[in-house]
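Hey,
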Amino acid sequence: MAVAPWMIAGCSRTSPGATSATLIRAGAAAIPSSISLTPQTVVVPPDVRAIVGVSADRKALRMSGVDVKPGNVLLVSDVGVFRAVAVQRGAGSELLVTPGPCAIQDLIADGAIRFDNLRISPRSGRPGGAAAAGASPAAGRSLLRDRLLPTLAAQEADEASGKIGDFDYRLQYATTNDAVTFQGSVSGDLAGFEANVRADGHLEGFDLSGGVSVRRGAPESLALLIKALAGELNFEATAARHDNAAHPGSRMLKVPKEYVWPLVIDGIPFLLKFSVALLLNEGLTNVDARARFGVKLTFKGSSGFDMKLPGDPKQAVPKTESEIDSDVSFTHAESVGLGPQALLVAMQCPRLAFGLGLDLPFVDVFAGPYIDVVTSASHTAAGATAIVPCQRNQIVTAGSVGCEGAFVHWSGDMRVEAYKKELVRAVPDAKACRGG
C-alpha cells in the first residue's frame, strides 16, 4: 500500500480592518522579587530597540545597544525570550545573534509563575510573524514588537500561499469578535496519485490558566488548563491514482505560522499559539481508483494537565483534566476501484501551546506545553471485485496534553492521550464489514 503523509501547520492572513495584537497582562507589572532570574539572563528594557533586523540568510538577529554573549538568555521586555546560540560581529556596532529556544530553567533560577482564568479574546491576537499595518508609536509599549522589523514584515504576504515541494498550499486566518476562523487547502501530484484536502473551521474565545515552578535551577511543576473551549472543524479529502509510479517515501509539508496571542505574566513575556495541522495517507491500489470523504466536528469543554516534573519525559505522569463534548460525523464517503481502496486524513485542530519564544518573521524558537484535539477519519472499501463490497468509515477523536522537550531540557517531547471517542459506520451494516 502506498503511503504519503504530509502536514501543514497554520499560515495566516489578517482580517479586513484587523489591528495589532494587544498584550494580555497578568500578575505583577514588573518581575517580582519572588522570582530570581539566572545569571546569564540579559533583560532588555522596553524603551531599547535591541533587534533591528535579521541577517541576509535570515538565520540570525541583528542586534544593537545590548551586550550579548553565546549562552545568554535575552528577555526582550513585552516582546519575547530566546537563547543566544551564537554571536558574531556585524556591520558597525551590530551583533549577529543566532536565536534558539529557551528552557524555563535557563530563564528562571528560582520562583513560580501562576495565572488563572485569563480571558483570551480572538481580537487580542493576530496571525504570527506579521506586523500590523500602520502601527503608531503613540500606541505605546503594546506595539513595540510591531516596530522591530518593519521592513521584513512588509515582505510577508497578506495571505500565506505558495508551493512546498510538489504541493500547492493555501491557509489563512481571520478574526471576528467571537472567533478565530481559518480556511485552507493543500493539493498536489505525487508518485502516481493526485490529492486535494480542504479544511475550514473556527475557535471561539476561551479561558487560560496555568503555571510553572522552578526551584534551585530545576523545573519542579508545570500546569496548563484551557476552559470554555469551543469550535468547529470541517474537512474534505479526495485522492485519485493515475499510474503506479514508485512511491518516494513519506512527505511532510509544514508552514511555520500560527495565530498568536502575546502575554506578559509577572513582567515576563510569553506567547500563546493556535495552529492547525494535517496528515494524509492514501492507499489506492489500482490505476483510475478514486476515494473521497468529508467530516464535520464540533467540540466544547476543557482540557489541560498539572504535574510534577521528572527528569525524563518517559517518566512523566500528568494529572489530566479533559472534558470535551464532541459531535462528529461523515458528510459523505465513497470510492471507485477494482481492488481494495483506503484514504486516511488526520486533522490536529485545535493545538494551543503556551511558552517562551519570539513572534517575528522567519524566526521559530518557540517551546512550551500544549493541548490538542486530533480527528482521524478513514475510509476503506473492498473494491468492485470483492465478494462482499464492504465499505468501512471510521472517525477517532482524541485529545492529548504534552510539552516540547526544549521547554524543560528534556531529551524528547512528552505527549499523553487524555481521552478518545470512536465512531464506525459500515455499509452494509454487517459484522464482517464493521471489522469485529
